[in-house]
Amino acid sequence: MNPLTTSAPRLVLASTSPYRRELLGRLQLPFETAAPEVDEIAHPGEAPAATAERLALEKARAVTARFPAALIIGSDQVAFEGGKTYGKPGTRQNAMIQLQSMRGKTVVFHTGLCLLNAASGNVQVCGVPTAVRFREFSDAEIERYLDKEDALNCAGSAKSEGLGIALLESLRGDDPNALVGLPLIALCRMLRAEGILVP
In the CATH hierarchy, which top-level class contains the domain 3-193? Predict the structure, then answer.
């Protein structure tokens, strides 16, 4: 047996997101989850892409004390168009406002990813953007969508892995998983750099 498979460090996902947990599960590697306590507010003047990458790193660092010898994954996503940033709506009214604002526009969903080796201190950080073109949909279509899809906990209110795909005209990006919240192509590259066998 390859020694890498017997001595691999613990893998920890610093997130409580069920979407990220499901995505990481696709790699068929054993992992644990931990809730990072991180203030997700952007810094003044900070670019949206920089916010996503900084928060991915901060989430990974937030759980290192609990997992001092683990490989820790942090991820965060910021959606933006022009000078406007779209976070998790939280309420149906906010989701309605977001979707009204985004229709007919191209919104960039920038997903920050970090893999932190807590034992060595080695850090890998990258960002994976996805350009999402929303079609021109009516208020009635938004209402029907929100009746059927729980989209209050995803940035921009459009859950592309669910019914939100019906609101879109096109997607452009390097990894479709990034839009859901965890760029698996980049993560596999990072894991291999740490000696983890994938596949």
Answer: alpha beta
Task: Give the domain ranges of the chain.
Answer: 3-193
Torsion of CA 183, 186, 188, 193, to 10 degrees: -150
Q: How far apart are CA 21 and CA 29, in angstroms?
A: 12
Give 170: exposed, middle or buried? Use CB within 10 Å, 0-12, 13-18, 19+: exposed
Does 76 qualify as catalytic in the annotation? yes
DSSP code per residue over 159-197: -TTTGGGGGEEEEEES-HHHHHT--HHHHHHHHHHTT--
3-state secondary structure of 151: coil
Closest CA to 179 of 15, 12, 23, 16: 23
Q: Over the stretch 100-147, which tens digit does the pLDDT of each residue have?
A: 999 999 999 999 999 999 999 999 999 999 999 999 999 999 999 999
- From 39, 76, 139, 147, active-site residue: 76
| Single-letter amino acid, residue 62 | A
CB-based contact 164:137 (threshold 8 Å)? no
From CA 68, how far away is CA 71, in angstroms rounded? 9
